[in-house]
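Continuing from the previous page...

OK, I double-checked the sequence for (Atlantic silverside) hypothetical protein against my notes and this is the correct one:
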Amino acid sequence: MLVHLNRIHCGEPFFAKMAAAGAASWCRLGAVIRPYHELTECLEQVAEVVGCFFPNPDVQDFFLEVHSTFFSNCSRGEENPFEDAPLGLVVWLTAVPVGLIPALVYLVVWRS
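Thanks. Re-ran it with the corrected sequence; updated structure tokens here:
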């Protein structure tokens, strides 16, 4: 029953909105965030009405289907938003605190 209600009340409106948006915009967060949020809220409300907890295996399966249908080709490609910090900076940010620890321990022991 939950699976059927999820499809009718939540899935069909979401699929219609995604079809209206067009496949070219499925990977743009700004174009899909509102329908996706509405889908999530709808699925949560249906689960509550039926008396099921949220999330549950049926809802998770539905989300997997949605993701495989609409978002399976939305990889970041070669773009890497996070680059490693320069080696000198990493060494400096590691060595300074490690070097301060023995000095602070010495001061605490000396003052006690």
